[in-house]
Amino acid sequence: MTVQQPLAGRGDRIRRALEHIRNDSTDDYGQVNEFQAREYTDPEVARRERDLVFGRVPSIVCHGSEVPCPNDFITLQMPRNRVIVVRQKDGTVKTFVNLCRHRGALLEEQDKGRCRLFSCGYHRWSYDTDGSLRAITRDNTFGEVDRSQYGLIELPTEERHGFVWVVDDASAAIDVQAWLGPEMDSVLDGYGLGDLIAVRSEGFDEPVNWKIMQDAFLDGYHIQYAHPNTAGKLIHTNVMAAEDFGRHVRFIAPRKSIDKYLEEAPAADEDLSRHVTETHFLLPNSTLLRQPDHFQLLTFRPHPGDPGRSRMEMRLIVPTVEASGMSEERWNHLWEKNWKILIAVLHNEDFPLLRSSQAGLASADAGGMLLGRNEFVNQVFRRELRKLIS
Ligand code: FES
Ligand SMILES: [Fe+2]
After folding, report:
1. Nearest ligand, CA of residue 150?
2. 184-199 pLDDT, tens per residue?
3. Ligand 2 center to 356 CA (angstroms)
């Protein structure tokens, strides 16, 4: 597969989706591919993914607005390391392994907060938020230590396009711009995501492999079957106009409100953007949805040991109250309402299906299974992941 239409105008891409509805077609990957259950259950496959994917390439850990001020931090479990992500005094963000260099106690237990230093609960060693070892308690008896060698272990971190990206390996380098490539880097650049804020964010630990989770949020084929009374009423099933950037993908899924243009073609300059959702698959583990007035970010992180578990995080990323021109009350009400709808669909419709997929794949004699030509973005996801782990 090669790049189809690099940075085609949005209107052209929407018109291509409209053609697909007329023809009962969708973008075609060109071939059906078989896959095996062990890709979702084998501990050795999971280990390779942790090391060769998350240990090598940048993935998003949060939006910058979640650590707005110096000394603001969040903690999370990456596939290889438990980490603390903390805003520095100079405005940059650093990520540290969440572990005390004395005898390995977990250093910070809170999910998020603001602190002047990280202080270990075991023997009270303390570290500056820049990671340096500040104090060894009772150091007259502890003995001579070169403190510069026992600061917190730092992971490669970069803030770009409003998001904080981390490579989960202390010995790796990070270059988010190079990883995104010129097309996706310029697409994200155009959105001004750094001016928005994550108004809601929540994580869900599910007994499901991370790839099954990620696949479900690139899938336009399941909509009317899995979501007949919610998304299925609003969004076309099995219609997608995608651009394969060779690693990341941008794709348009038309809403049913576009159907009025089936009879009568839209004028050449008609803005059709409110009739579609534009989605971005950011390899390895994020789906960024662009809605008319906000963004949603979905990330899927493997469990550090069990191939059958993962954590999904969902974020609603929106204009600030000031930029929205709304009253604070109306702004809060709007996003709370949006959030509740999203959460209900996840819990009531997607998660039960995905848990049952994982349960099904646990059978020893599962046999080969298939990804169709119509499952374009899932095919790219699998193709790129195989490149990384082979
Ligand atoms: S383990 Fe942290 S101070 Fe001893
Ligand atoms: Fe779904």
Report:
1. 1
2. 999 999 999 999 999 9
3. 14
